[in-house]
Design goal:
- The protein is an alpha/beta fold.
- It has seven helices and nine strands.
- The protein has one domain: 3-Layer(aba) Sandwich (Rossmann fold), CATH 3.40.50.
- The strands form two sheets. Strands 3-2-1-4-5-9-8 form a seven-stranded mixed β-sheet, sandwiched between helices. A two-stranded antiparallel sheet has the order 6-7.
- α5 links the parallel β2 and β3.
- α6 crosses α7.
- The chain is globular.
- About 40% of the residues are buried.
Length: about 220
C-alpha cells in the first residue's frame, strides 16, 4: 500500500471519532480563529465572492467556521469517509475528494486556501509538488494559510511521528515535524510571497504539546508555474 493510500485508510478508519473529537477545537484556539478571519477578510477584499477551499477538511469544522463568517467555501479531503462525515454534519456546504497531488480544481479556481495541519503527512519530496498544486488552484493574488507542527519534547524539525494507534483505532500513519524556513523557501519557489508568520507554543491541556507555525502567503500575480 502506498503512503497516500495508508494516509487515506487511516483517516477513513477514524472518520467519525475524529469529527467528534475536533468538532469544537476552534472554541479553544483564538489565534487560529483570528487567522481564519484574516483570510476571509483578505479574500473578500481582493476577490469578492470567490471560493475559499479548506484543504484537509476532515469532518468540516473549519469549513463550517469559514462559512459562518460569510465565506463561499468548499471542503476538500483525501478520505471518502471523512467527506461523507462532513456532508452528514453540514449538508448545506460543499465537500469533495482531493489531494495535494490533485485538488480537483481548475487553474485559478479559488481565491483562498486554508490548509491546517494537512501538509504534515507529506514527505519532504512531496511538499514542493504540493505547494505547486496549491499555487495552480489559486487565482493570482489569492491567499494561502498553512499551519504545521514544528517540534516537541520528543521530536525535532525533520522527524517523523509514526502512529500505529489513533483515537483508539489501529492505523499506519506518519506525521512530520517541519522547519518553517523550509516551507517559506518552498512556497517562494512556486510563486508565493509569505506575508506573515506566527510561531506559538502549545496550549496546555488542549492539544498535542507541539510548537506550531502559521504562514499567511499570497500568490504572486506575475508568477508562471
Amino acid at each position: 500500500m502506498s503512503k497516500i493510500d495508508r494516509t487515506r485508510a487511516a483517516y477513513d478508519t477514524v472518520a467519525e471519532r475524529y469529527a467528534d473529537a475536533f468538532a469544537d477545537e476552534l472554541d479553544r484556539r483564538p489565534l487560529e480563529r483570528g487567522l481564519l478571519d484574516t483570510v476571509v477578510a483578505a479574500v473578500g477584499h481582493d476577490h469578492p465572492g470567490s471560493v475559499i477551499a479548506d484543504v484537509g477538511c476532515a469532518g468540516g469544522h473549519v469549513t463550517r467556521y469559514l462559512a459562518a463568517r460569510g465565506a463561499n467555501v468548499i471542503g476538500v479531503d483525501i478520505a471518502p469517509r471523512m467527506i461523507k462525515e462532513a456532508h452528514r454534519r453540514s449538508p448545506e456546504l460543499r465537500f469533495q475528494l482531493g489531494s495535494f497531488a490533485d485538488l480537483g480544481a481548475d487553474r485559478g479556481a479559488w481565491g483562498g486556501i486554508v490548509a491546517l495541519y494537512s501538509i504534515i503527512h507529506l514527505t519532504p519530496e512531496e511538499r514542493l509538488p504540493a505547494y505547486r498544486e496549491l499555487a495552480r488552484a489559486l487565482r493570482p493574488g489569492g491567499w494561502l494559510l498553512l499551519s504545521f507542527h514544528v517540534s516537541s519534547a520528543q521530536f525535532r524539525p525533520g522527524d517523523v511521528n509514526h502512529l500505529d494507534r489513533f483515537l483508539g483505532e489501529a492505523v499506519d500513519l506518519d506525521g512530520w515535524f517541519i522547519d518553517p524556513e523550509e516551507v517559506v523557501q518552498g512556497l517562494g519557489r512556486v510563486g508565493f510571497e509569505v506575508r506573515a508568520r506566527v510561531d506559538r507554543e502549545p496550549l496546555d491541556d488542549v492539544e498535542y504539546p507541539s510548537r506550531r507555525c502559521y504562514l499567511l502567503a499570497r500568490a504572486r500575480s506575475n508568477h508562471q508555474l
